[in-house]
Amino acid sequence: MEDKRQIVDNLVLELRRGTLVLSVLSQLVAPQYGYSLVESLETKGIHIDPGTLYPLLRRLEKQELLQSEWETSGPKPRKYYILSVLGKEVYQELCNEWLELNKSIMAIL
């Protein structure tokens, strides 16, 4: 049987997973590459493992929510991501949904 700490840790992980897309989209109003995105989220208290981030970025790009461009002029090539027009619209709708959901949850708590 799982102990209480393990149960809580697993449930917190589930809660976090549900917020990662919104967290990532929120940081891509300006171009960022993967590692800068990890750092940006970390400074705001959101931990995301690169092994989780890169597949998420590829999925969001495939859904046409992100645009990407390779920067090759620096010491090492970097792929920069930014919200597409569709991505900005979806991000705004997700923000609205989040605010409504948060309001409901806060009323319950």
What gap, in angstroms, lies between the N and C termini?
Answer: 28 Å
Question: How many distinct domains?
Answer: 1
Tell me, what's the shape?
Answer: globular
Order of helices and strands: HHEHHEEH
Largest sheet: 3 strands, antiparallel
Q: How much is the average pLDDT?
A: 95
The share of residues in helices is 55-70%
Strand tally = 3
Q: Radius of gyration from the CA trace? A: 16 Å
Low-confidence stretches: none
**How are the strands ordered across the major sheet?**
1-3-2
CATH superfamily: Winged helix-like DNA-binding domain superfamily/Winged helix DNA-binding domain
The CATH topology annotation reads as: Arc Repressor Mutant, subunit A
Helix tally? Answer: 5
Structural class: alpha+beta
Output the CATH class name.
Answer: Mainly Alpha
Under the CATH scheme, the architecture is Orthogonal Bundle
Question: In percent, how much strand structure appears in the residues?
Answer: 5-15%
What would a concise description of this structure say?
The protein is an alpha+beta fold. Helix content is 62%, strand content 13%.
Q: Could you please describe the fold and organization of this structure?
A:
The structure is a single chain. The protein has 109 residues and is an alpha+beta fold. It has one domain: Arc Repressor Mutant, subunit A (Orthogonal Bundle), CATH 1.10.10.10. It has five helices and three strands, in the order H-H-E-H-H-E-E-H. The chain has helices spanning 4-17, 20-26, 34-43, 50-62, 85-108, and strands at 32-33, 66-71, 78-83. It has a three-stranded antiparallel β-sheet with strand order 1-3-2. The longest helix is centred in the last third of the chain and has 24 residues, at 85-108. The mean pLDDT is 95.
